[in-house]
Specification:
Blueprint lengths: L2 H27 L8 H13 L4 E4 L8 H7 L5 E6 L2 H12 L12 E3 L9 E5 L5 H5 L4 E6 L10 H13 L1 E12 L5 H5 L3 E14 L2 E13 L7 E13 L2 E12 L4 H10 L3 E5 L8 H6 E7 L3
Parallel strand pairs: 1-2, 1-5, 2-4, 3-4, 5-6
Antiparallel strand pairs: 6-12, 7-8, 8-9, 9-10, 11-12
Helix pairs in contact: 1-4, 2-3
């Protein structure tokens, strides 16, 4: 079985299993101190204000970044809906929303099932894969549909990525916007990845106190030639979780995730292939921390009116 075939079968189950560790790993890396990055949420809020947005669907919301930040930091009321194919990740998102922020004491949010928010605000959540969005939401529903956090990369093939973006466009109102992001791969990526095998075999992702001991995170990366993957290259990353108590290693787990890297130019072509117009790169540039822009490329396109 190719990497593409295996990945399509396993990704939701893997995220269900990895969900309890996702935010812990982010904390161990020092990437964020709570469920969301304030600078990312603020940058999107400024963008949405400029675009006169009133309703947003984050269709790969994971554990709630930036969805929860949009709800907690927004000065004006947005209708905010989060969906994810993984019940485990969505459950963590709900927990992150209802608990106050440990450092700032930020207010807890109310969490509603999709379509039941009423006048209470908060966020609406639903377990939903990309292909299910039109049947669950109806057409022309949201001002913005966003798919951020490097999620589209898991679709692996050009056909699957364009199909996912088309379902996002289907639930976006005419004149609305679809936004996604991906890792900003180096200019020489295609040549570098043309050689299958391990690269950066083991990477330290940090450690943190957890559960009466400490937990440590590592990952390994391998690239494989796969004709089915976008650009003919598949990436397999294995995240390792090591739990230590009393100075002894008590438990270890491995989670193999796969995706297909692509360049910014390819990202623009994907949105155009899904029927979006006026496609632009980096609409957040200049309003967000430099480390985010260096790591991720953000792409936005408008649905024809």
């Amino acid at each position: 079985m190719s990497v593409v075939q295996q990945a399509s079968e396993d990704v939701v189950a893997l995220y269900d299993a990895f969900a309890p560790w996702y935010d812990v790993m982010c904390a161990a890396q020092g990437r964020k101190r709570q469920a969301y990055r304030p600078d990312v949420a603020d940058a999107y809020l400024r963008l949405f204000s400029d675009l006169n947005v009133e309703s947003v669907l984050d269709c790969a919301c994971g554990t709630g970044d930036p969805l929860i930040g949009l709800a907690k930091r927004g000065e004006r009321r947005l209708r905010l809906v989060g969906s994810d194919g993984s019940r485990g990740m969505l459950a963590m998102c709900a927990l992150n929303a209802i608990f106050p922020e440990p450092e700032t004491g930020g207010r807890p949010l109310t969490v509603h099932p999709f379509g039941a928010a009423g006048s209470g605000g908060g966020i609406e959540l639903m377990t939903c894969r990309w292909e299910e969005l039109p049947s669950r939401c109806g057409s022309d529903h949201f001002d913005v549909v966003m798919c951020v956090g490097h999620a589209l990369y898991h679709a692996m093939t050009r056909e699957a990525m364009v199909a996912a973006l088309r379902t996002m466009a289907a639930v976006t109102r005419p004149g609305g916007y679809v936004v996604f992001d991906s890792k900003r791969w180096t200019p020489g990526l295609r040549g570098e990845l043309g050689r299958p095998g391990p690269r950066d075999l083991v990477k330290w992702r940090g450690w943190t106190e957890y559960g009466g001991g400490r937990v440590m995170f590592l990952d390994s990366t391998a690239y494989e030639a796969d004709e089915g993957a976008l650009s003919g290259i598949a990436q397999v990353m294995r995240f390792y979780v090591l739990q230590e108590r009393g100075g002894e290693l008590r438990e270890r787990r491995a989670y193999p995730f796969a995706g297909a890297p692509f360049h910014p130019e390819t990202a623009m072509e994907l949105l155009e292939g899904a029927g979006l117009e006026d496609v632009k790169l980096d609409p957040l540039d200049g309003s967000i921390a430099p480390d985010y822009v260096e790591r991720c490329v953000t792409i936005i396109g408008q649905k024809p009116k």
